[in-house]
Structure formats: structure tokens, C-alpha cells
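Thread: calcium ion complex, take 2
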Amino acid sequence: MNTWITIPNNSDFTIHNLPYGVFIRDNKPTPGIAIGDSIIDLNAAAKCGLFKSLEFNSNVFESDVLNDFIACGKDAWSSLRSFITTELTSQGELFENKDKILVDRKSTQMCLPIQIGDYTDFYSSIEHATNLGKLFRPNSEPLLPNWRHIPVGYHGRASSIVISGTPIRRPQGQMKPPSEEKPIFGHSKRLDIELEMAYIIGSPTKLGESIAVEDAEDHIFGKVIFNDWSARDIQGWEYVPLGPFLGKNFASTISPWIVTMEALEPFRCESIKQDPPVLPYLQYDGNKNFDIQLEVGITPQEEEETVISRSNFKFMYWNMAQQLAHHTVNGCNVNVGDVMASGTISGRDANSYGSLIEISKGGKEPIQLKNNKERTFLEDGDSVTIRAWCQKGDIRIGFGECEGTIKS
Ligand code: CA
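Output below.
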């Protein structure tokens, strides 16, 4: 598709993507769509009258988050995408008003794109669950008996989800290193990342309703990169018997642009075969995994970046539709803007593991970085950047970056 906007080679934000985010314009958070190195200011476009033919109230773009627009429903998302695609490939009203509507993307600051009501974190990569099982419970079967039957998850904390670029303070807490007889208190010494993706709920349910697996994707607005920062020493001491708590809830970072399910459609792919077969409410037809390439880089302070892992979202054992069907099967309701994270996405070998604890084998084998640096866990000043993109033939879409730097 030819567009009058310049799109740099290898841009994440091609005309096939059109992701939604919220950026600062005139000191106000404003909804926008990324295209090349520009942002389409949706509020400015609405004020210029561009959306008058669309069947939703474009006042939703006066909001400083996307929830109101998302709540307009799937037809609204689709009609806006189609309208913007037409405007970018022909010289219509967007072209005529481009001085008012287009903003230089690289000179703006991004904000959290949604108000997040609830956040759930799944644990859906079989390689990650197996690796962590071996590290946390070396004397028993790594996968617990329920794991192949249930998309295991827990309820996290929405309040501490931050936008890419927000500094991450090293958490303090209670821990019990093997060398100590009693628990101690202090700063985490085993600060880690979790390479994840998350989806945003776009269509709500009422309390008592369940979402069938075949309808589940209709309830998803889009996806972001998700880094679930983890303090392994705090986690290791506190997690029995109720699971993650303070080792996880001090911060999670999301990437600023929400890539829609429509943009991801060309990148569907087959899943890993589930064995044993799952219960009927989790059975599905068709391709429900997505081929999304992932990479993690670490940049120590005033050093250059080393990519330490390359993984892929297609490695997930449990897909998003199964996760959402399971989440709601008991009647638990979901709301627009809820965030559902995948769990750490690890592949089969150490170059594709999604956390430092896996790559460094529990901190025993340091990870080599450029310029003779090495890491087991994160040090103060380290910056972690996760990137995600899809490529098929000439079609490329990407998620941009999800970055955070550790502060003492
Ligand atoms: Ca996690």
C-alpha cells in the first residue's frame, strides 16, 4: 500500500500496524495512532471533523486514556482502522489538515494508554514453568500436576504497572538466603526481568457470565510488550503457599503502543500440541497462536547493549483465548482496560529464555555482556529493553520498545 507519509525502512509503525497510544501534546495526554515517525492526533482529527461519517462519538478522544474509545466496541475499532488506512493512501481530509493533526513521534513523551482496572498474570510457557520448577523445587517433578490442565495464573497489582521509560526502584523486602538461618531484610540482590506480552480487554462481561473459547478473541482489543520485574530472593521466601506477592508487585512495565488484533491477523500460527487433551471448555479450533518475534537487551550504565535473549510469542502452550475462557469460566467478570499478561515466554534453549534466573541457571552461570561485563541478576544503572515485531514477506509490524532502568 502506498502512502503519502514517509515510513522509514524497518519501521515498526507501517500502514499495516496503526497501533493506539496516548502521548503528551500541549501538556495534555492525548490519544493517537503511530505511523512511521509521526503520530495522528485523534482528538485534533476529531475536531477537524474527520470522523463525522463514523458511527461512534468522536468526543471519546477528548479523554486522556483510550478506555472510552475501546468501549465503543469492535465495529468502531474496525471502522476507524479502515478510515485511517484510506486517508493515508489517498489525499483526503487528513492530508489537507496534516499540519494540525500530525505530530513528530520522536519529540513526544508517551503515557499509560489505558486506565487499568485489574491485572492478571498467567504462567503459560511450558519451558519457563519447567525451568522455574527445577530451580525452585529441585527435588520434585518440575511441572506441577495441574499445569497441563489449567492455564495457571494469579491476580497481580494494577497500581504499579508503569509506562516504558519509567525508572524502576530496586525493591526492599524480606528474604531468606540459603546461608542464613533466619530471614533478613534488605534490598533485593536477585532482581530479574520477565519477558512477557499482555493483552488488553476490549469488550466487558457482567458478573456471572463466562466467555466461550471461540468468542474470546472478540473480547481482546490488542497487545503490548510486558516486563514483569521480579525480585527472586523475595519471591523465593514468600511464595509458599499462595504464590507471588511483594517479589512481583513493585513494578511491571508496558510498551506504549497497543497493537490491535486486526493488525496481528496475518501472523496467526499453529500452536504446540497440548498433551494430554484439555477439558472441553478449553478446546479450540483454528490457529490461536501468533508469530511475534521478541528480543531482550541489557545496557549497563554508560555501556553498549547486549541482546541476551531471542524468543517468540508462538512458543506459548496456552493461548489467549484459552486463558480468557478459563479466567471467566467461574463467572468472574472482565472490564475494558483489564490487562492479562502471558507469563514469561521462554523457548527451548538458553538463548531464548525469558528471564535472567533461567539464563544464568539460578545465578550460577554469569551471562556474558559486551566489553567483558557479565551479569547474573540486574545491577543499579542497568537498562533493560524488550522489542517485539512480526514479519511476513513484505509486511512488518512492531510494538516499539518496553524499557526500564534500575535505580537504587
Ligand atoms: Ca510473570
